[in-house]
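Morning. Coffee machine broken again, so started the prediction first thing and wrote up yesterday's gels while waiting. Chain of 694 residues, entered below exactly as on the submission form.
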Amino acid sequence: MKKFLLINILLLSVLFSFAQQYLSNFTQIRSEGEFPAQLQNLLLENNEEAQIVKNLITKGRLIYGSELNRYVENVFNNLLADNTELKKQISIYIVRSPAVNAMILKQGIVLVNIGLLAQITNESELAFILGHEISHYVENQGKKSKKTKISSLNSYLNYHQSSREGELDADKFSLERYFKNSPYSAAALTNVFDVFRYGYLPFDEIPFTRAEVETDFYAFSENYFLANVKQIRSRADYVDTLSTHPNLQRRQQQLDRFIANNVDKGSDFVQSKDNFLKIRDLARFECINFYLTWHDYGNALANIIVLKNQFPKNQFLEIAEAAAYYGFHKHRTNGSIDNIVEPFKDIEGEKQQVCHFLRKLNKKEANVLAIRKLIFALKKYPNNDFLQKMANDAFYDLKKENNMNLEDFSDFAQNTNIDSISANLPEKEIVTETNKYSRIRGKAENQSLVLPNAKFTAVNYMLVDLKRDELFNTLHNNALTQIEDEEALAIASANKPLISDTDKVIVWQPTYTKIDQKKQRTYPVFGNNMLKNAIKISTKRLKINTDIYSDKEIKNLTTEQFNRISSVGQWRTEYSEVDFVRMVLYQQSNLKHELSDFRYINLVNEGSERANFFGGDKWQFLYRAPLCIVTLPLDAVIFMLPRRDKTLYFSLYDIENGKVTFSQRFNVRGLDTDAYINNMLYKFYYDLRKGRKL
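Came back before lunch.
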């Protein structure tokens, strides 16, 4: 018996160790298998839902064939075991979105957000939710679908639902048509609506303690920490008279009646519970990737704290945590943080403390805290290029942006009694030293110690344990050297071409966008090839080796090509979130892996809007009219013609170094602006290829 127990314990420990290792090596979930024919066909269509799918693909949000997909497909097959015909009509895709939601398109495409998989508590809940979406599909067949006004892809993924009656009916049909005859337990659904009710919260309520950000050497002011966090309130029983969706309490009551009136013979898990937990953990790790890509550092850190409690010393989580503090520091240093950390007063639960603390940090504190997190991560993972780049940049900012030197940091802990310092200094072994240089060096070392003073705050004590560290000093000295040399390097490289004969450039989705200032909206113009053709002509003349990816290239894909598009799409999403902050992007590592044969990414966008009718050069025609009566009719016609303001945005991103190496913007107003845009586009490529101004 003892041997049997010992064997079981060993097996469990091996399995636990394997799971820890599996998640420690986590990077991101990638699509697997063949590119689905259904997607291939959908990409040829030109309707609203086809455009949603195209956006999901080009932004790197859609996943097929992965371990998550296979798990959800098994649940789907268990639910429709006796309905072969319906199974053929529906397919499952995973979407990178932390929103707790799922939806089905009229083509039978079920979109399951990773946020849903990250928050459910058992397999039966997932079966019920899938049945709900299947019910929508069956009930809406043959009906003319209402046109959905989509303000943004995120809002669609977060809030897409049917009418109030439709939601209640879909719950009812899910239970009676599919769930009732499935191997799943209805009793396991007791908390399913809590998943939606509280899905906006982190994965668990784990306190953010001071030990996360403080040591024995320093402490932040007490007002950086809340005495109590805001209580989580119920959202089940709001008045829904004027709402298009029923409140969750009404849906819960309908579910409770079903559970009471039916004999429960099913199971919480048809697949193993261990497999369910593995899938949920994978979804949670992918949510961390999403938060960091979108620079949502409050949600990222709140959920990293939860996962670190479950997976201590996990490599992915430790690097992600360092990246979150680094990203926050960059935004704090370069401007507003309103778009990356929610106002803490509006937040409930333990996440409120995380956001409150971040918003309290000043620029210097955020910089030094990022350095601390990066140093300790680098000590564990010294070969991680991503950590190295972030650390170099954070040290650069310490001097360049915050003007802090080592002399600004105390060698002694906060609240140390200055009078006791001399008594505690280690004795120098100078008795046996007869060499005067040794004695001078020893005296200089004593003099170099920085003592506390009345002007010091917490930030001045944050490097007590690192100032004598070899890695710390190497990175610090490298940053000082970089700052000293950068002006000379800039002059030396000013006339050198950036793009060589061997460099390969990927031009990512050159877009032409119309801007409506009155409605404050932008409208991408699909099918406009003028910009793309201008790029082809310029790069061909200058012998620049380019691949152009646009919506038209996103068809007849292999899975390798799909994953490449997905990786660049996620990087492009993060790039747009940077808001002109110079930083190492979180998606840099994935991008470098997927585009190993490319050196640069080129982003080219053209924006166009109708100019003010009386603006610009129109007045010159009125001034000229009295002087030249002959041209008056022509001047009048030209005056009445509408003009357009156009802006060309052009940037080149170095994949190897993770930096924007060239960025330009060109504005033009007139009747025929295309020639100006094309000439300037050629000039930009000429400067990059030839290394001199055209």
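The longest helix spans residues 2-24. Going to sketch it on the whiteboard this afternoon.
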